[in-house]
Write a structure and sequence with these properties.
about 400 residues; alpha+beta; FAD/NAD(P)-binding domain; D-Amino Acid Oxidase, Chain A, domain 2; 8-stranded mixed β-sheet; 5-stranded antiparallel β-sheet; 12 helices; about 25% strand; globular
């Protein structure tokens, strides 16, 4: 088997992997991005709602907040420069009852501390001048909320990486990894690659690659399927209710209702009845899954409710009708857009929502990206690149309080 030598390899052609390859291609020669599918963006990155968040949710002063704000700005600038379809439509967070109004002010305060421009708390009559069918009492309006063609975005970032000299090779599933003092060897069915530094950005399969190298064994990825209903007639622009389902205008002009979060029977099980025996067989072997099922009653209750709701168009209609006047059950059709969220679970059964990175001397395993991942991707790539020195070594994260990363 022929062995090819590279300085850096980034495994996985999702938006984070492509963004990181693009960033590292500016600094290093001989950068490789192997992707197991026939194209980039085939899974989570190309199957989301395409929302570019403005950054009023993260806790001020955290890495998550900084990357979301920077990422939102970079994303809109990148799309404008590269001609990727992106619309700055704004976002409404609607308080449906009095108890939710203080939460709007809390979000506004967070957003202002994070540097989100133009945030306003609007009375519902003002909101109705813009969105005549909306219900509620007050709303937080964020003008920088945007929507983007997520699949086109990933493909454009990948082409940008190629223009910077990165070898983006599709159809190359990594089946083996081994590490020596000087390099990591990646093996696929066709060839092997020897690299000085390996970056694991494999998304739904990131834990498996980490486990091959003996790290991240306290973690396992549980897949959750996200389904959307499509509204078949015109309704208001994107409205994000504080509780319940989201209404999101997509870049093609349709309106999406959802997503839910249903436990999936496989990491790429996009159909309701798709089952991957390997995936289902491996999950119970990890103690984190059993601990979550036994001790995390909230998770079990949510999973059960979401599973039931995914069978009910009427549930989605009832939730949306709290927010929008004039919506009928017949207006909703289950759409083709289905994504899988890779939910990382720790051995203690807790769901991981923050950045999680495991390393060896010659590899970096990005098990959980700072959320929201697509919005933060370009900023995260810059941040990750800054942690790689000229000798192709990852600089360890400083000791800092957990909330800084949250």
């Amino acid at each position: 088997m022929t062995t090819n030598t590279y300085s850096v390899a980034i495994i996985g052609g999702g938006i984070v992997g492509c963004a990181l390859a693009r960033e590292l291609g500016k600094r290093f020669s001989n950068v490789l991005l192997p992707e197991k599918e026939s194209a980039v963006g085939c899974h989570t990155s190309g199957r989301n709602s395409g929302v570019v968040h403005s950054g009023f949710n993260p806790k001020p002063g955290t890495l998550k907040a900084g990357l979301c704000i920077e990422g939102s700005n970079l994303m809109r600038q990148f799309c404008k420069e590269r001609g990727v379809a992106c619309e700055q439509v704004g976002t409404y967070v609607v308080a449906l009852v009095e108890a939710q109004i203080p939460l709007l002010y809390d979000l506004k305060s967070r957003g202002e501390k994070n540097g989100v421009p133009g945030l306003e708390i609007l009375p519902i009559d003002v909101v109705r001048e813009r969105e005549p069918n909306v219900k509620g009492l007050k709303a937080l309006f964020s003008p920088t909320g945007s929507i983007v063609d997520s699949k086109a975005l990933v493909h454009t970032i990948a082409r940008d990486a190629q223009d910077k000299g990165v070898d983006v090779l599709t159809g190359q599933e990594v089946s083996g990894l081994s590490e020596t003092a000087g390099h990591v060897e990646l093996r696929t069915s066709e060839r092997s690659y020897r690299v000085a530094l390996m970056m694991n950005c494999a998304g739904l399969h990131a834990d498996r690659l980490a486990h091959m190298m003996g790290v991240g064994r306290d973690y396992v990825i549980a897949p959750f399927r996200g389904e959307y209903f499509v509204v078949q007639r015109p309704v208001p622009h994107p409205l994000v209710p504080f509780l319940g389902v989201h209404l999101t205008k997509s870049i093609d002009g349709s309106v999406l209702l959802g997503p839910n979060a249903v436990p999936a029977f496989g990491r790429e099980a996009y159909g309701r009845w798709n089952v991957n025996i390997r995936d289902i067989g491996q999950m119970p072997a990890h103690r984190g899954v059993w601990t979550a099922l036994v001790r995390n009653r909230t998770l079990v209750r949510i999973a059960w409710n979401e599973w039931r709701h995914s069978r009910s168009r009427r549930h989605f209609w009832k939730e949306a009708s709290r927010l929008v006047d004039g919506l009928r059950p017949s207006d909703l059709t289950l759409g083709r857009r289905v994504g899988i969220r890779p939910q990382l679970i720790r051995a203690n059964g807790h769901l991981v929502e923050d950045l999680s990175i495991e390393t060896t001397p010659r590899s970096v395993h990005i098990l959980n990206v700072v959320s929201p991942g697509m919005t933060s991707s370009l900023a995260f790539a810059r941040w990750a690149s800054s942690r790689i020195d000229e000798g192709l070594r990852w600089k360890a994260l400083e000791d800092q309080p957990a909330e800084v990363m949250a």
